[in-house]
C-alpha cells in the first residue's frame, strides 16, 4: 500500500485528483485503507509534520446516502493543518485544496484518554478539557467525490484543514447539563450572510460525545496507531450538510444552546 500512500500524499500537496484505487485494486477494503492511512502518518511525520489531534468524519448519517458512506472514519490533524481563529475569525487560502467543502463541527481537547466501550456521554465528557466551535475543510482527491467508503478513509479521511475557535473550559460541575446541551444545541450556517443550512448536536452519531466513543473503540482495534492522549484536539463531524467553498466567500456559523459558544467566521482567499 506504500505506492498508494505516496500517490495520495502527492495529490494532497498539489491539490490533484488521482485515479480510483478500486479500479487498480479491486479487493481494496477497510484494512487496506487504514494500512494506507498508517503509511501516510509515517510519511508526514518523517517530513516534520506533528500530529496534534484527530478528525472524525461521516458521523452525520444524514449525509451518508450522498456519499455512499457506511461508517464513520478518522485521520490525524497535524500542526500544519490546524488553524486557530482569533476573536472567532480566520482567513484561509484554498491554494492546493481539491474540491473543498466546509463542515461546521464541535471540537474537543482531551484532558485524558476517552474510555473504551463507553456509551454514557457524561462519563465520556469527563475526559474533556475544553470544547470549541470548529470548521473542518474537507477535500477529496477522487473525481467528483465518487469513491468507495474505504477509499474515503484512505484519502486522509478527507481532512485538509481544521479551524478551531475560542475554547470553553469543561469542569466536572457542568458535565450533566453540558451533556444535554451538546445533544440539543443547534447551528446555523451562512455564506456571505445568506442562510445555507442548519443542524443540531445530535446529528453527530446521536451525540458528539458518542463520536469520541467511536474513535476510542476503533483505535482499540488498530494497533498500528497511537492511542488517544491528553492534549489532543478532536473534531467530531459535521452537524450540517458539507457545502462547497471558493475564494472570495465568507462563511459564518452560529450556535444556539451551547454556553460560551457563538460561532466562527471564515474568509477564503486564493
Structure description:
There is one protein chain. Helix 1 (2-14) crosses helix 3 (30-46). The protein has 270 residues and is α+β, with helices and mostly antiparallel strands. Strands 1, 2, 3, 5, 6, 7, 8, 11 and 12 form a 9-stranded mixed sheet that branches. A 5-stranded mixed sheet has the order 4-14-13-9-10, with no helix packed on it. The protein is built from 8 helices and 14 strands. 26% of the residues lie in helices and 30% in strands.
Tally of alpha and pi helices? 8
Instruction: Round the mean pLDDT to the nearest integer and report it.
Output: 98
Largest sheet: 9 strands, mixed
Rg on CA atoms, Å: 17 Å
Distance between the termini: 33 Å
Order of helices and strands: HHHEHEEEEHEHEEHEEHEEEE
Note the overall shape. globular
Q: Care to count the β-strands?
A: 14
Helix-strand category? alpha+beta
Instruction: Indicate the proportion of strand residues.
Output: 25-35%
Share of residues in helices: 25-40%
Provide the low-confidence segments as ranges.
Answer: none
Pick out its properties.
270 residues, alpha+beta, nine-stranded mixed sheet
Summarize the structure.
The protein has 270 residues and is α+β, with helices and mostly antiparallel strands. The protein has eight helices and 14 strands.
Amino acid at each position: 500500500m506504500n505506492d498508494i500512500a505516496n500517490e495520495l500524499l502527492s495529490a494532497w500537496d498539489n491539490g490533484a485528483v488521482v485515479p480510483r484505487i478500486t479500479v487498480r485494486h479491486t479487493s481494496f477494503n477497510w484494512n487496506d485503507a487504514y494500512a494506507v492511512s498508517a503509511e501516510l502518518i509515517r510519511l508526514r511525520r518523517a517530513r516534520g509534520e506533528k500530529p496534534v489531534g484527530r478528525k472524525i468524519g461521516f458521523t452525520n448519517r444524514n449525509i451518508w446516502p450522498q456519499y455512499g458512506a457506511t461508517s464513520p472514519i478518522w485521520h490525524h490533524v497535524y500542526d500544519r493543518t490546524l488553524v486557530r481563529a482569533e476573536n472567532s475569525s480566520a482567513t484561509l487560502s484554498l491554494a492546493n485544496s481539491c474540491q473543498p467543502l466546509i463542515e461546521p463541527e464541535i471540537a474537543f481537547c482531551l484532558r485524558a484518554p476517552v474510555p473504551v466501550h463507553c456509551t454514557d456521554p457524561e462519563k465520556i465528557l469527563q475526559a474533556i478539557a475544553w470544547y470549541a466551535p470548529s470548521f473542518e475543510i474537507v477535500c477529496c482527491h477522487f473525481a467528483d467525490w465518487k469513491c468507495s467508503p474505504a477509499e474515503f478513509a484512505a484519502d486522509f479521511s478527507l481532512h485538509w484543514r481544521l479551524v478551531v475557535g475560542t475554547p470553553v473550559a469543561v469542569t466536572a460541575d457542568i458535565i450533566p447539563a453540558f451533556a444535554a446541551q451538546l445533544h440539543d444545541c443547534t447551528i446555523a450556517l451562512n455564506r456571505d450572510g445568506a442562510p445555507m443550512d442548519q443542524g443540531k448536536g445530535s446529528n453527530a452519531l446521536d451525540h458528539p460525545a458518542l463520536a469520541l466513543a467511536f474513535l476510542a473503540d476503533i483505535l482499540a482495534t488498530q494497533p498500528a496507531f497511537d492511542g488517544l492522549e491528553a492534549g489532543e484536539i478532536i473534531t467530531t463531524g459535521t452537524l450540517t450538510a458539507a457545502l462547497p467553498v471558493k475564494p472570495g466567500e465568507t462563511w459564518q456559523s452560529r450556535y444556539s444552546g451551547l454556553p460560551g459558544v457563538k460561532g466562527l467566521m471564515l474568509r477564503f482567499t486564493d
